[in-house]
Design goal:
The structure is a single chain. This protein is α/β, with parallel strands linked by helices. The longest helix is centred in the C-terminal third of the chain and has 28 residues. It folds into two domains: 186 residues; 139 residues, Nutrient germinant receptor protein C, domain 3 (GMP Synthetase, Chain A, domain 3, 2-Layer Sandwich). Helix 8 crosses helix 9. The protein starts with a helix and ends in a 5-residue tail after the last strand.
């Protein structure tokens, strides 16, 4: 009896092992036979056709270049992907995709349908970076920059560094789609530009729903970050007008910013909104007269900084209202202070350009540096 049981158990184990080995053979992917798409680009062509390009690293040690760029023109991104797959002996996979570049011309027509493919693909991370190219996205991806042989890695490094310094927003697939489907805010994305031997940050692209509308220049990127959210880290240089119209410069680092929003109503019942930013920083450079260790001089400089940043911030708010883009999410602040029925009745996108929206800055020099 025991022998019969042992034989039966042995047969069951053998069958289980056989099934397991067959399952393991179902989706074998040999590393050398895979083409890892790390960066993709999308451009608008004639007759509303779409040009898609992907950059893949090469595993061949004898290859002259470290990457391969494939491109195809099609009606949709899925059709383009099928054409791309026929251009290589590798199996194209998207699990290593890090950045997606969209030309400004394509972004003006709307990006939702082109991002839909990325959202539906379970192998693509929602954290991939979204960027707009002021020019041809494929040409930027194909170009070999002398000091940066792997263009995709170069772009990724620029976006990571500038987002850490708060000069641009770090826009991911997730954050873009989240803001797109939120009726109280519009999406934003960094704008890149080919500058010959290197790539520049051109500014912050502002969208109305999924369509690119306009751009905030790179020099005002940090001001935009102040208005958009509280943060730590960053560096800013400010030109101040001293006595006898003397031009002085102060540079602050280790910024710590806190944003508060006050929502009210005017005489007609429309919402009013005031953004108050208080920030502190450490002095890296100061070319003005007088020592910042003296309370009177320090207070005077803090007031000059606050006055200038308030003026620059107000210009950005007026600019966004004029272009009917709620990139700061003012609608979220207003919506959170009223009922859902009242919010729907308000018709925010029609009301937003005409509301009274203001800002104010308070600057604090927390450390005057080693020289003081």
């Amino acid at each position: 009896m025991n022998k019969r049981i042992r034989n039966r158990v042995g047969k069951l184990l053998l069958a289980a092992l056989t099934v397991a080995s067959l399952i393991g053979c179902g989706d074998q992917r040999v590393l050398e036979k895979l083409g890892f798409s790390q960066v993709s680009s999308y451009d608008l062509k004639d007759n509303n056709m779409l040009e898609v390009a992907v950059s893949m690293p090469k595993a061949e040690p004898q290859a002259r270049t470290q990457r391969e760029v494939l491109s195809a023109i099609a009606v949709s991104s899925k059709e383009a992907r099928s054409k791309l797959a026929k251009q290589t002996n590798l199996l194209l996979v998207s699990g290593q995709l890090r950045n997606t570049l969209y030309s400004m011309a394509l972004a003006r027509n709307g990006l939702e349908q082109h991002m839909d493919t990325l959202v539906r693909d379970p192998s693509i991370s929602p954290r991939i970076k979204i960027s707009i190219v002021n020019g041809n996205a494929k040409q930027m991806l194909e170009k070999e920059y002398k000091q940066h042989p792997i263009t995709g890695k170069y772009i990724d490094g620029i976006l990571e560094k500038e987002a850490t310094g708060r000069s641009i927003p770090q826009t991911s697939l997730y954050s873009f789609m989240r803001d797109l489907y939120d009726d109280g805010i519009d999406p934003v994305a960094p704008v890149l530009r080919d500058a010959g031997e290197h790539i520049n940050i051109d500014g912050v692209g502002l969208f109305r729903e999924d369509r690119y509308i306009t751009m905030i220049r790179a020099r005002d990127g940090l001001i935009f970050s102040f208005l958009k959210e509280s943060f730590k880290r960053g560096e800013i240089s400010i030109h101040l007008t001293g006595e006898e119209n003397e031009r002085n410069t102060i540079t602050l680092s280790s910024l710590t910013s806190r944003k508060k929003v006050k929502v009210g109503h005017d005489a007609s019942g429309l919402p009013t909104l005031h953004i108050q930013i208080q920030f502190s920083g450490t002095v890296l450079e100061y070319t003005g007269k007088g020592s910042l260790s003296e309370a009177g001089n320090r207070k005077r400089v803090e007031q000059q900084i606050a006055k200038q940043l308030t003026a620059r911030g107000q210009k950005l708010i007026d600019f966004m209202q004029k272009n009917r883009v709620d990139s700061l999410g003012m609608g979220i602040s207003v919506r959170n202070r009223m009922s859902y029925a009242a919010w729907q009745k308000l018709n925010w996108m029609e009301t937003y350009p005409s509301i009274q929206a203001t800002c104010g800055f308070t600057a604090v020099i927390s450390n005057t540096g080693k020289a003081e």
